[in-house]
Amino acid sequence: MFRKSISCYCTSARMGTVRTISTAAIAAVAMLAFAGTAEAQTYLMDNTPETTCTGTFFDSGGAAGAYTNSEAFIKTFTPDVVGDKLVFNFTTFTVENNFDFLTIYDGNSTGAPVIGIFTGPTAPGIVASSAVDGSLTFEFTSDTSVAQAGWEATISCFTPSAGGACCLNNGTCAPATDASDCVDVQGGTYQGDGSDCAFVSCPQPCTTCNTPTALPY
Q1: How many angstroms from the chain centroid is the CA of residue 212?
Q2: Cα angle 62, 64, 69; round to 5
Q3: Pairing with 74, which of 20, 49, 100, 106 sits 20 to 30 Å away (CA)?
Q4: pLDDT by residue (tens digit) across 80-100?
Q5: C-beta of residue 190 within 8 angstroms of C-beta of residue 202
């Protein structure tokens, strides 16, 4: 049987890259383990939007099965508490490398910024929303052959602090009370109200430019 050749999958998004995670992010995920003894809801990959801050997210095959061939699903999650933001912790992840893809968007549609595109065994890890409504959108496509085990991710939410994150020129992140505090006082780049350094990856200073002190932003 003819098998298509593997070619480079190129995108302007950062493939397999997510935001830097700190202990604050880990604490947000850990809250799920202590939320109570009630049985958590499970959500399968499909086209049905969901509103929740708890549960487990699986591929279409669920906990024990694989996804199927020729899938094309888009699923949006929104937090059930206004003002909170979603966090997904992928504990397992395996899809057919270079043929099946999970794309994660930072918002409530595929028009939102792309957090990452994941294929093969490259797991998303911990993914947090920075969207105004705290939502995340997942798009999954599989080709016509070779389905793998898929994924499992725990769902939780966090409440962002007042103000936002400020990316400084040395590549670090610092909290700021507002845009003026970040730009005028700290000399950084404001990441928006409600953003959190726990989920922000600030650009690093350029060390290979013609002008060594030049920054990439």
Answers
A1: 32
A2: 60
A3: 20
A4: 999 999 999 999 999 999 999
A5: no
Q: Are 131 and 86 in contact (CB under 8 A)?
A: no
d(CA 135, CA 68): 26
Helix then strand count (H, E) for the chain reads 2, 13
| b/e burial code for range 142-162 (CB count within 10 A of at least 16 → b) | beeeebbebbbbbbbbbebee
Residue listed under structure tokens 């028009």: 111
CB-based contacts of 175-183 (< 8 A; 24+ apart in sequence):
none
**Ramachandran assignment for 62, one of left (phi > 0), alpha (psi -120 to 50 degrees), beta (any other):** left
Average pLDDT over residues 192-198: 84
Q: Which residues contact 180 (CB under 8 A, 6 or more apart)?
A: none
pTM over 0.85: no
